[in-house]
Amino acid sequence: MTCIKGATPVNFAFVEMPSRLIDRAVDQIAGLPGVGRRTALRLALHLLGRNEEDVRRFTEAIQDMKEGVLSCSTCGNLGEEEVCSICLDDRRDPSRIAVVEDLRDLLAIESTGHFKGRYHVLGGVISPMDGVGPADLRVESLLMRVGDAEVKELIFALPTTMEGDTTAFYINKRLQNTEVEVTTLARGVAVGDELQYADELTLIRSLQQRLPYSATSNSSAP
Ligand SMILES: [Zn+2]
């Protein structure tokens, strides 16, 4: 590709497509998060170049996923049954529930293989800027689960953002009159980080939440 200094790249938002059908496909693809019209056009042209069978498999996979995937009626995890495999697994500790924002965070914790409790997927975090309030999240069903005598500990595994903190604060407040122990993931200097590059807040939290040295080498599952 020749790059002329000072030249402005084509703005595909204003370019008229040679076909209404391409335009419609680009519109749909560009509606996906993080995909601009330039990338959407590249993907649309790529799909156009594939054979019909490939494209049918592609659209069928998306359609089948939309129709077949269910939210677990207990924890909000995704699966293909009314109750998910984690909730049905009786080898998992029902007394500990990790509260996560969405499936990606659940998968991240699962990938460690070090959490044997269960989950509650909120489906987002409280964000007044985006118009997301507690009623838009699975908060009430979480409180109902906590009401169950079996649940002893709730672990906030939420994003370390203002929205994550607001959500934890709100849920914790709603749990005031319960016996459940509420904990949160430790915050501090990440593994492999150099102290001089850590931000001030992270360093302060790391100091406040310091651990006995012996605990830092203990990697047993909770
Ligand atoms: Zn479940």
Name a few traits of the molecule.
222 residues, alpha/beta, Helicase, Ruva Protein, domain 3, Dna Topoisomerase Vi A Subunit, Chain: A, domain 2, four-stranded parallel beta sheet, two-stranded antiparallel ribbon, 9 helices, 6 strands, 9% strand, binds zinc ion
Task: Describe the protein.
Among the domains are: 49 residues, RecR Domain 1 (Helicase, Ruva Protein, domain 3, Orthogonal Bundle); 97 residues, Dna Topoisomerase Vi A Subunit, Chain: A, domain 2 (3-Layer(aba) Sandwich), CATH 3.40.1360.10. A hairpin with a 6-residue loop joins strand 1 and strand 2. The chain has nine helices and six strands; from the N terminus they run αααββαβαβαβαβαα. It is globular. With 222 residues, the protein is of the alpha/beta class. The structure holds zinc ion. The site of zinc ion has 8 residues, from helix 4.
In this entry the ligands are:
zinc ion
Largest sheet: 4 strands, parallel
Instruction: Indicate the CATH class of the domain at 89-185.
Output: Alpha Beta
Beta-strand residue percentage: 5-15%
Task: Tell me the distance between the termini.
Answer: 54 Å
Low-confidence stretches are: none
Total of helices: 9
What is the strand tally? Answer: 6
CATH architecture descriptor name of the domain at 89-185: 3-Layer(aba) Sandwich
One letter per element, helices H and strands E, the order comes to HHHEEHEHEHEHEHH
Overall pLDDT level: 90
Rg computed from alpha carbons, rounded to a whole number of angstroms:
23 Å
Q: What is the third-level CATH name, the topology of the domain at 89-185?
A: Dna Topoisomerase Vi A Subunit, Chain: A, domain 2
Can you list the strand order of the major beta sheet? 4-3-5-6
Give the structural class: alpha/beta
Q: What spatial form do the alpha-carbon principal axes imply? A: globular
Give the proportion of residues in helices: 40-55%
